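Q: Got a minute? One more chain.
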Amino acid sequence: MKKKSLKTVGVKELKNNLSAYLREVRGGSTVLITDRNDIVAELHEPFTRTNVAGAMDPQLQAWVESGLVTLPTVDKEPLRLSFVCHPAGTTKALIENERKESGE
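A: Always. Here it is, folded:
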């Protein structure tokens, strides 16, 4: 099991020792990158490929890891196109017609 830890490093230190910090990230660590004592970025292992949309939200990932939530096991299917199709402007024309008939 990988050892998880949290480290903070300045931009200059990261630049000078990037390979060492990447090894730590591979080992399970998370590295917070600071610029003038403000956290500006975070290095961590990539998320699992189970999330089709890309990187998983950190809170969702925490829930998954704790077993509170289970991710879907099947991909979403696109919705079928509606059988109700009208040309552009049809709704506007119907509303205008209704207003004329009702005397508005």
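A: Confidence is low (pLDDT under 50) at residues 48-53.
Q: Perfect, thanks.
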